[in-house]
Design goal:
2 strands; LysR_subst-bd; 2 domains; signal; about 20% strand; about 120 residues; alpha+beta; LysR substrate-binding domain-containing protein; two-stranded antiparallel sheet; elongated
Protein backbone atom coordinates (compact mmCIF):
# COMPACT_ATOMS: atom_id res chain seq x y z
CA UNK A 1 0.00 0.00 0.00
CA UNK A 2 1.24 3.48 -0.86
CA UNK A 3 1.17 6.50 1.41
CA UNK A 4 0.71 10.02 0.08
CA UNK A 5 3.80 12.12 0.67
CA UNK A 6 3.21 15.67 1.87
CA UNK A 7 3.84 18.32 -0.78
CA UNK A 8 7.29 19.89 -0.76
CA UNK A 9 5.89 23.22 -1.94
CA UNK A 10 2.83 24.72 -3.62
CA UNK A 11 3.43 26.57 -6.87
CA UNK A 12 0.88 28.42 -8.97
CA UNK A 13 2.10 28.03 -12.56
CA UNK A 14 3.29 25.23 -14.80
CA UNK A 15 6.45 27.22 -15.51
CA UNK A 16 7.41 27.43 -11.84
CA UNK A 17 6.60 23.75 -11.23
CA UNK A 18 8.73 22.78 -14.24
CA UNK A 19 11.60 24.98 -13.02
CA UNK A 20 11.42 23.43 -9.54
CA UNK A 21 11.56 19.91 -10.99
CA UNK A 22 14.51 20.85 -13.22
CA UNK A 23 16.25 22.26 -10.13
CA UNK A 24 15.85 18.89 -8.39
CA UNK A 25 13.20 19.88 -5.84
CA UNK A 26 11.16 16.74 -6.46
CA UNK A 27 8.76 15.05 -8.87
CA UNK A 28 5.61 16.66 -10.24
CA UNK A 29 2.67 15.88 -12.48
CA UNK A 30 2.61 18.15 -15.53
CA UNK A 31 0.98 18.19 -18.93
CA UNK A 32 3.03 16.32 -21.52
CA UNK A 33 2.63 19.34 -23.79
CA UNK A 34 4.29 21.59 -21.21
CA UNK A 35 7.39 19.41 -20.94
CA UNK A 36 7.62 17.81 -24.40
CA UNK A 37 10.93 19.56 -25.16
CA UNK A 38 12.32 18.41 -21.80
CA UNK A 39 11.38 14.80 -22.58
CA UNK A 40 12.92 15.10 -26.06
CA UNK A 41 16.20 16.48 -24.72
CA UNK A 42 16.39 14.05 -21.80
CA UNK A 43 16.21 16.81 -19.15
CA UNK A 44 13.09 15.14 -17.72
CA UNK A 45 11.88 11.57 -17.77
CA UNK A 46 8.36 10.22 -17.96
CA UNK A 47 7.39 7.93 -15.08
CA UNK A 48 4.72 5.40 -16.09
CA UNK A 49 1.77 5.20 -13.71
CA UNK A 50 -1.61 3.54 -13.64
CA UNK A 51 -4.60 3.47 -11.34
CA UNK A 52 -3.80 6.82 -9.75
CA UNK A 53 -6.88 8.65 -11.05
CA UNK A 54 -5.33 12.09 -11.47
CA UNK A 55 -7.92 14.77 -12.14
CA UNK A 56 -7.84 18.47 -12.60
CA UNK A 57 -10.56 21.04 -12.88
CA UNK A 58 -10.30 23.65 -15.59
CA UNK A 59 -11.54 27.22 -15.32
CA UNK A 60 -12.29 29.80 -17.98
CA UNK A 61 -11.45 33.25 -16.59
CA UNK A 62 -11.82 36.70 -18.06
CA UNK A 63 -11.66 40.30 -16.94
CA UNK A 64 -15.06 41.88 -16.38
CA UNK A 65 -18.49 40.80 -15.16
CA UNK A 66 -19.53 37.21 -14.47
CA UNK A 67 -21.19 36.92 -17.89
CA UNK A 68 -18.54 36.00 -20.46
CA UNK A 69 -17.93 38.57 -23.19
CA UNK A 70 -19.50 37.87 -26.58
CA UNK A 71 -17.37 36.07 -29.12
CA UNK A 72 -14.84 33.26 -28.68
CA UNK A 73 -14.80 33.40 -24.86
CA UNK A 74 -18.58 33.01 -24.59
CA UNK A 75 -18.58 30.35 -27.31
CA UNK A 76 -15.97 28.32 -25.41
CA UNK A 77 -17.75 28.66 -22.05
CA UNK A 78 -21.09 27.72 -23.63
CA UNK A 79 -19.57 24.68 -25.32
CA UNK A 80 -17.75 23.44 -22.22
CA UNK A 81 -20.63 23.96 -19.78
CA UNK A 82 -23.16 22.32 -22.10
CA UNK A 83 -21.00 19.25 -22.76
CA UNK A 84 -22.88 16.18 -21.48
CA UNK A 85 -19.90 14.87 -19.46
CA UNK A 86 -19.18 18.20 -17.75
CA UNK A 87 -19.27 18.21 -13.97
CA UNK A 88 -18.62 21.04 -11.58
CA UNK A 89 -15.60 20.46 -9.34
CA UNK A 90 -15.84 21.09 -5.60
CA UNK A 91 -15.12 24.65 -4.45
CA UNK A 92 -11.45 25.60 -4.34
CA UNK A 93 -10.50 26.41 -0.71
CA UNK A 94 -7.83 28.82 -2.01
CA UNK A 95 -10.25 30.85 -4.13
CA UNK A 96 -11.06 34.30 -2.73
CA UNK A 97 -14.46 34.50 -1.01
CA UNK A 98 -17.48 35.76 -2.91
CA UNK A 99 -17.63 39.53 -2.87
CA UNK A 100 -13.87 40.04 -2.72
CA UNK A 101 -12.29 42.48 -5.16
CA UNK A 102 -10.73 39.65 -7.16
CA UNK A 103 -14.04 37.90 -7.75
CA UNK A 104 -15.83 41.13 -8.69
CA UNK A 105 -13.18 42.01 -11.27
CA UNK A 106 -13.04 38.65 -13.02
CA UNK A 107 -15.53 36.11 -14.21
CA UNK A 108 -14.69 32.47 -13.59
CA UNK A 109 -16.72 29.45 -14.62
CA UNK A 110 -15.78 25.92 -13.53
CA UNK A 111 -15.14 23.59 -16.44
CA UNK A 112 -15.36 19.82 -16.78
CA UNK A 113 -13.17 17.48 -14.78
CA UNK A 114 -10.65 15.73 -16.96
CA UNK A 115 -9.44 12.23 -16.19
CA UNK A 116 -5.70 11.90 -16.78
CA UNK A 117 -4.39 8.44 -17.69
Amino acid sequence: MYRWAPPVMALSTTTTVRAAVLAGTGPAVLSGLAVADDFGSGRLRRVPSSGIGLRRGLRACWLGPRTPPAGPVRDLVTHVTSHPRATVPPPDPHRPPAGSTHVRETGCVPGPRIMQN
